[in-house]
Design goal:
19 strands; Jelly Rolls; 4-stranded antiparallel sheet; mainly beta
Length: 252
């Protein structure tokens, strides 16, 4: 994770009937990050997390134990390092943005997560996304999500990796990733990949509103069983730059 325009930005959309709510835990991790028990190099030493809400208000946390409701965070979601950040909150339907950055301007590898604590609620998390600076090797961008449901159930999703078309309020993002490639790693070990979305066999079936606006961008339309999934975004030819990885749930 970098600084300035290249901070790590996560987003999610909650849908549901008027008056419904969703309780979530949002985490910003850095010091404790590891892969298969091996610490990640260049970890962000002191992540700070900010939740930007639809009404313009911002909720922040630097060190999770200092949150007023830290005692309500489920034990399995309490970070291993006191410098990591957590927000436990109840949200109405709407679009939310989470920004993770170094509390004192530090840079390094970080993880932003959102957990649904009320699966039975009529409000649903329908979209998750992460924007960050994609590098190479251990510093590619990695997104993950968990599909829940009874045995035998499935849900259709669209995964997207955007770069060339990225902009904020109509202004192009500097240092955009010019040719993103996406890999979807599935629980059985299989991998689905896409470089240019129009080249996908079922690219024409992607809903019109989710078709990327640049042919170099990537999308995967697939049907998934319950389980944990990982999406990796990198430059198709080793390029680096700012990219966005997104997952949309198409089935209610």
């Amino acid at each position: 994770m970098s600084a300035g325009d290249n901070v790590l930005i996560g987003g999610f959309i909650i849908t549901g009937p008027s008056g419904s709510t969703k309780t979530v835990v949002i985490r910003g991790l850095g010091p404790s990050l590891n892969v298969n028990g091996v610490p990640v190099p260049e970890r962000l030493p002191d992540p700070l997390i900010a939740l930007h809400q639809p009404d313009g208000s911002v909720v922040t946390n630097d060190n999770w134990r200092e949150a007023l409701n830290a005692g309500g965070i489920p034990a399995n979601l309490q970070p291993n390092d006191d410098r990591e950040s957590v927000i436990l909150t109840t949200l109405a339907p709407g679009a939310y943005t989470v920004i993770v950055q170094g509390a004192h301007g530090e840079t390094g590898v970080a993880l932003v997560e959102a957990y649904d604590l009320e699966e039975s609620s009529p409000a649903k998390v329908a979209n998750i996304s992460t924007r960050g600076f994609v590098q190479t090797g251990d510093n590619v961008m990695i997104g993950g999500f968990i599909v829940t449901g009874p045995s035998g159930s499935t849900t259709r999703v669209v995964m997207r990796a955007l770069g060339p078309s990225l902009n904020v309020n109509g202004v192009p993002v500097p240092a955009r990733l010019t040719d993103p490639l996406i890999e979807l790693h599935q629980p059985d070990g299989s991998i689905v990949t896409n470089d240019n979305w129009r080249d996908a066999v079922n690219g024409g079936q992607i809903p019109t509103n989710l078709q990327p606006t640049d042919d170099r961008e990537s999308a995967i339309l697939t049907t998934l069983a319950p389980g944990a999934y990982t999406a990796i975004v990198q430059g198709a030819h080793g390029e680096t730059g700012v990219a966005l990885v997104e997952a949309y749930q198409l089935d209610p």
